[in-house]
């Protein structure tokens, strides 16, 4: 490892991740020695993969589908002997192992999940709900673990914790706390894992046999996704695979790992070879999400505070240190729909949230027009096509929309041309107001150097133009009994990239306020490539997407270069990434930088949103990410909140959040960014 990569920043464990895996090992029906060796082979493979927690199928030592053989004394003794061998071998392995085995206790046989770490059997969790319907007959062999709490069980001469009240907690990795349940427990109306999560477990594990029938895989996904979302946790599910008895049943060996409702990894089903399904679970993100959900704590109180009644079983283990990569999908565009199979539906939903919000505001005001400033840029374009859909749904003529293009000192021919093409294609009432005479008069009145012929293009020069445009729009709305549709977006609000008061920060209804720049770009592309508008509109939409993002307030330089927004404040794709992780989960700057580095360092790694243009695929090194993140933190925490504290109404669009002071984000306008900058400086290397 290079000296640079030895920095703690590159170690995923330093950022709250835990490497989790499911394993469907080779299995031979009722052959305990063969199955023991297969479990150990997979455990060693997981060790090489630097796994921290490895989950095996239910009853994997004996195999599941052996019917009355579970009750044979020779089988029971062989399983216990195999447990001793695995415990001994685990001393040299990094993963905590969760294996399935049947154990005797007080004259009863229990179907158990055994937690083994670093040479110790930590505890045994009995299955609570025993299926005894259709193809299942478990009550013939096993006793239910329901209600077993506070007990100990003797295994190979040692007393270990036994019960459904066990949460296993790492003494090495903060927030690495797991709970185990078994197969049918998950299908019950009240899964034991719900209490396990309320007791503090961040990772819920299911050791399952679960024969396969048509549609059952979808059902497992539904349950895992639902439980991980409802309990604000990770859910790790492992089913039995090839090698189980097929006397009456078949097995697919499905392993899935979910986190907060998101699928992280899934194994190959029906594989003839052992499957190791690996993903890095963000336990820190889980804990931070629970902090934001008072309902989670309320549920814990209603359940009798299981965090106080459950037993916490501490364990020590030997996780691999240093840079071991990051095995999980990290979306480059966390605000952008990226499910290819659901792309149209997701974009339709995002777009129509805005349409419905603006439509309701129009109905409530009784306005006779909607007034929009059309610049030929992304935000005003998107606001206009949303407004056009409002007119269509309310069966109003699109001439109900009054669009005004207002060229200033730096307006380019291209954007002005696009603005006119767009207004004509959409079919609205379109006009042009040249603001340069009024802006010149104002600059003269305040004694600005530009009025005296000097090329001074400061903030005042820019804001005179931005303010005049908004001033005109408000007066025009009054004149035409309408209201001003705001065009500013979520990314600009996050960065304070808007003119306060009489400027683009203000409107009567901010229809784009919940939509970040990256999502606006994607929604416009979706509209242009679908059947939302006619061919002429689609053509100009695509032309606008290809235009440099610029406020066009400062004239082009001698070299012809125009004012670039992203050169000043950073790439919107990075800023939106930063915003999502800071606003939605409260992630530390070093964690945000770590995730951004993994998401953006290589264009060839990971996935891109469906249909994303090849020539727009960028990559960034850590130094670049760190530099723009520092600027983001300054702008977001210490500069721009006063603008957000006074924003007009507008709809929330993404679960990633919004910045309305009446909604997701409340913050003081005079805060310091020192805490975030210090954390960034201390924990993220400069190169």
TrEMBL record:
The keyword NAD applies. Deamido-NAD(+) binds at residues 463, 492, 497-500, 643. Pathway: Cofactor biosynthesis; NAD(+) biosynthesis; NAD(+) from deamido-NAD(+) (L-Gln route): step 1/1. Signal peptide: none annotated. The active site is at 58 (proton acceptor), 127 (for glutaminase activity), 183 (nucleophile). Its EC number is 6.3.5.1. This is Glutamine-dependent NAD(+) synthetase. It comes from Novosphingobium album (ex Hu et al. 2023). The gene is nadE.
